[in-house]
Amino acid sequence: MNDQMYENEEVELEKPSLFGMILEPGKQFQRIKENPKILVPFIIITVLTIIGMLLMMSQIDFIGNDPELNSMSEDELMIVTIFAQIGFAITGLFAPAISIVISTLIYFLIAKVVKSEVSFKQLFSMNIFIYIISVLSLFVNALAFLAISNPDPELYVTSLNSIIQADGVLGAFLVSIEIFAIWGMILTAMGLQKVANFSKGLSWGIVIAIFVIMTGFSMASTAVLDSFGAL
């Protein structure tokens, strides 16, 4: 009798939906907590990221942006193009994994400190499903590049800097103020509360702290590069 009840409970567990994160994130987080999925959704976001990166690359004029390439022959340019495509594909292949693993490790370590019973698998699954927002950002910007002549690959049209177009440290800061990044932050804070049972204050504190650190690092890197360029 008990075995039959257990089987019924297993059957009733619904799988979380990647695209459900867009309209019903709360429901997906509850499903992730009860029935975390990793392999299939991870493969989907990786494939979509690679496609998005290649689509974005197809709209960028690398030759026009680099005067040194203008002196190359057609065969040399073809080799450069092939290597560029491979580079974007590799980035699309590894970027999701690296981002998801690092963020999961951070959240899991914090969970251990605050004695949350959330598992590594649950957090890993949560971050995979949240990553669909980054994929959506990639496709929106790639499609937006279709309407722009010689777009800047480092300037997402969904960032605040696409309006102000500042350079240097200010530009690096404004690039970080991006619609989908903010959306992802909101979902992360929500997910930490629902999946990891973190308090609202702790969840938002973690999200904001990571944002400040990453933005600060980007601004510092830009400042260093600008200083070398001025020499």
Jot down its keywords.
74% helix; 231 residues; mainly alpha
- Sheet-strand content, in percent, reads under 5%
Give the count of helical stretches: 12
Q: Which spans have pLDDT < 50 for at least 5 consecutive residues?
A: 5-10
SS class: mainly alpha
How many independent structural domains?
A: 1
Strand count:
0
Helix fraction, binned, reads over 70%
What is the residue-averaged pLDDT?
Answer: 87
How would you portray this structure in words?
Helix 7 (120-130) runs antiparallel to helix 11 and helix 11 packs antiparallel against helix 12. It is built from 12 helices and no strands. It has one domain (24-230). It is an all-alpha fold and 231 residues long.
Task: Summarize the entry for a quick read.
74% of the residues lie in helices and 0% in strands. It has twelve helices and no strands. It is globular and about 60 Å long.
Secondary structure elements and their pairing?
Layout: H1 2-12, H2 20-23, H3 25-34, H4 39-57, H5 62-65, H6 74-113, H7 120-130, H8 132-144, H9 161-164, H10 168-176, H11 179-194, H12 200-230
Helix pairs in contact: 3-11, 4-6, 4-8, 6-7, 7-11, 8-11, 10-12, 11-12
